[in-house]
Amino acid sequence: MLKVKDLFVAYGQSEALHGISFEGGERETVAIMGRNGMGKTTLFKSLMGILPVKSGSIEVAGSEVSKEESFRRVAKGIAYVPQGRMIFPTLTVEENIQTGLENSKTRRIPEEIYALFPVLYDMKRRKGGNLSGGQQQQLAIARALVTEPKVLLLDEPTEGIQPSIIKDIAKALNEIRKLKQITIIVSEQVLSFAMDVADRLFVIEGGRLVLETARADTDVSRIKQYLSV
Amino acid sequence: MNFSDLLNIGLMQGFAGLSLFAVLLLMGLGLAIIFGQMGVINMAHGEFMAIGAYTIYLGSQLTEQYAPSLMPVYFPLAVILAFCFAFAGGWLIEWSLIRHLYKRPLDTLLATWGISLAMQQCFRTFIGPKEVSPTLPDWLLGSWAPVSGLDIPRNGMFVLALTAVVTCGVLLALSKSRWGLRVRATVSNRVMANATGIDTRKTDRLTFAIGCGIAGVAGAAFTTIGSTGPTSGQLYIVDSFLVVTFGGAASLLGTVVSAFGIAQTQSLAEFFMPGSMAKMLTLTLIVVILMMRPQGLFASKVRR
Q1: How far apart are alpha carbons B215 and B187 in whole angstroms?
Q2: Are A99 and B304 a contacting pair at CB < 8 A?
Q3: Inter-chain contact A74–B197, Cβ cutoff 8 Å?
Q4: Quick one: DSSP state of residue B127?
Q5: Of the given ranges (A22-36, A110-124, B117-131, B238-252), which has the lowest mean pLDDT?
Q6: What number is the average pLDDT over the span B50-61?
Q7: Under 8 Å CB-to-CB from B21, ≥6 apart: which residues?
Q8: Which stretch of DSSP H or E encloses residue A210?
Q9: pTM
Q10: 8 Å CB contact between A99 and B179
Q11: Cβ contact B198–A90 (<8 Å)
Q12: B124 in contact with A at a CB cutoff of 8 Å?
C-alpha cells in the first residue's frame, strides 16, 4: 500500500533524513520507534507533503505522490494525524470531522465514526479547543478516517495522554484496521503501545532506519536501549 | 425649533448615517474576510467598489438607450452584475498576482496599491475623468414621510435592505456552507487544513473574489447616495480600513458594530459642525478608543 524508497529530506542545507526505505503492506500496522529528534516527525511531514522531499519516491497504492500538494495526497489515500493533534480549536467537533469530507460524495459523517468514538457524538456541538487531550486525539483520528484513507499516518498518538486513554486508542486502532483493512503507520516512543498495535517495528536513529523486526521476534531489551536517553 | 423638530432632525441625520453605515459595512466586510483568510490587506478594495458603481452606471445607460421600458427593473439586475464583475476582477488579480506574494505580506500591500493606481487610471482613460451618476428608477427617488417634517429617503431604505441581505448572506455562508467551513479551517490552521484534504489555494482565490464582489455591491449601493468618479473608491478605503481595525480584525460582528458607530458619529456630528471638523471628531474618538483597546472592539477570545 505504502512504498517509501530512498527518501532524502533536508531543512535548507542540513539533511535530516538520509535515505529512508520501507513498505507498509495491506492491513499491516507498522511502528516507527525512536527518541526525540531522530526524524520521526520529519518523516511523517514529508510523507504528507508538508515538508518538501529532496529526492526519493513515495507510492500510495501504486501511484507516486512525492511531488503532490498535501490535499492531493489526501485524495489519493493518505490521511494524517499529526503530533500534537492540531485539531481546529475554533470549530465544533462536528465541523472538525466535516473538514475531512472534502472528497466524499454525500458530505455526511458516516455513523461508524461515532460508533468508534462515542465521546465525539456526545460532544459534537462543543468547540474542538475545549476538549481534553485524549478527546482531541480521538477527534484527530476521526477527522483523518472520514477521508477514506488507504494509509493512515499517526505521529506520536500517545504523547501527553493519560495511560487509560492510551489503551483505548490502541483498541480503536486495532478495530479500525479490522474494519477498514487499511495500512497504519504509527510513530512512537512508548514501546508497550507499539507492541499492542504493530505487526512490524522499525527503529529510526539519526535520520536512518537502523533496525527492523516483526512483533513476534522483537528483542524488547534491544529496542529499549535505542529508546533510552 | 421645538422638541419634535429636533427629534425629526435627529432621526433624519441618523438615517443619513445609516446609508453611510451600509456602504462602510459592505466595504469593511469584504476587507475583513480577505484579511482574515489570508492576511492580505487589499489596498485596491476601493477600486472594486468603483467597478460596482460603474457597472450600475453602465447598466442605466444601456437600458436608457436600448430598452427604456425596462428602466424600473434594471437596478436589481445591475446589482447582481456589479457583484459578478467585481468577483471576476478579484479572481483574476488573485490568480495573476496575489497568490505569488502570500509569503511576503508587505509586498502584497504595495502590489495591491499599485493595482489600485492602475485601475484608477483605467477608469480615467476608458470611462472618463468626470463624475457620473446613473439614472435611478423612479421607485428609488423621493422620500417616505410618515409624519410631516420627517422625510426618510427611499434610496436609503433600499441600500439598508440590500446591506442587510448581503451581510446576513455572508454570515450564513460562513457558518453553514462548505466554503465557510473551508475558510474557517484555513484561518484556524492552514497547513493542517491542507492536510485534511482542503484545497487551500482555491479557497484563497474564491474568498478573495467574494470579498471583491461584496465591494462591488457596496459600489452599487454607493451610486444611490453619491456620484461615481475614478477616485470615488479611494475616498472610502480609509474609512473602511478604520472600520475593520476598530471592530477588531477577523471579527465580523465587530465590523458591523464599528461601521455603525463610525457612520453614526460622522453623520450626527456633520449636522452640528462643518464636515471636516466632524471627521476630526470621529477620528479623535477612534484614536482614543484604540489607545485603550488596541485589539479593537471585539477581539475573539478563543485559545489558539
Answers
A1: 21
A2: no
A3: yes
A4: I
A5: B238-252
A6: 94
A7: B163, B259, B260, B262, B263, B264
A8: strand A208-214
A9: 0.89
A10: no
A11: no
A12: no
Question: B252-272 and B3-38 are packed helices; what angle lies between their axes, rounded to 10 degrees?
Answer: 140
Q: How far apart are CA A74 and CA A96, in angstroms?
A: 16
Rounded Cα–Cα distance for residues B34 and B202 (Å): 13
Of B185, B187, B302, Cβ closest to residue A99 = B185
* pLDDT(B249) > 80: no
* Spatial CA neighbour of B215 closest among B99, B141, B98, B116: B116
Averaged pLDDT, A72-91: 94
Enumerate the domain spans of chain B. Answer: 23-138+153-292
What pLDDT band is residue B103 in, cutting at 50, 70 and 90? confident
Q: Domain total for chain A?
A: 1
Among chain B residues, the shortest Cα distance to A141 is held by B196
List Cβ neighbours of A226 (8 Å cut-off, separation of 6 or more): A33, A34, A35, A203, A205, A210, A211
The three-point CA angle B38-B41-B42 to 5° equals 105
- Give me the CATH number covering residue A67: 3.40.50.300
Confidence bin at A131 (pLDDT 50/70/90): very high
Average pLDDT value for residue range A136-153 = 94
What SS3 class is residue B195?
A: helix
Dihedral pair phi/psi, residue A202, rounded to 5°: -115, 155
Q: Do A80 and B195 touch (CB under 8 A)?
A: yes
Joined together, the cell numbers standing for residue B124 give: 480615467
Question: Do A71 and B195 lie within an 8 Å CB cutoff?
Answer: yes
Give the residue ranges of DSSP H helices in chain B: 3-38, 45-66, 74-96, 105-122, 154-176, 178-188, 190-195, 200-223, 232-247, 252-272, 275-292
> Does B273 score more than 90 pLDDT?
no
For residue B173, count other CB atoms closer than 10 A to its CB. Answer: 14
A48 confidence band (pLDDT: 50, 70, 90): very high
Distance of CA A141 to the CA centre of its chain: 9
Chain A contact for B177 (CB, 8 A cutoff):
no
Report, as an integer, the average pLDDT of B30-59: 92
Residue type, B114: G
Averaged over A12-24, what is the pLDDT? 92
| Residues of the domain holding A162 | 2-227
Please list every residue in chain A whose beta carbon sits closer than 8 Å to the beta carbon of residue B182: 99
Q: What mean pLDDT do residues A166-182 have?
A: 89
Q: What is the pLDDT of residue B155?
A: 85
* Of the candidates B42, B38, B87, B36, the residue with the CA atom closest to the CA atom of residue B219: B87
The answer to whether B304 faces chain A, any CB pair under 8 Å, is yes
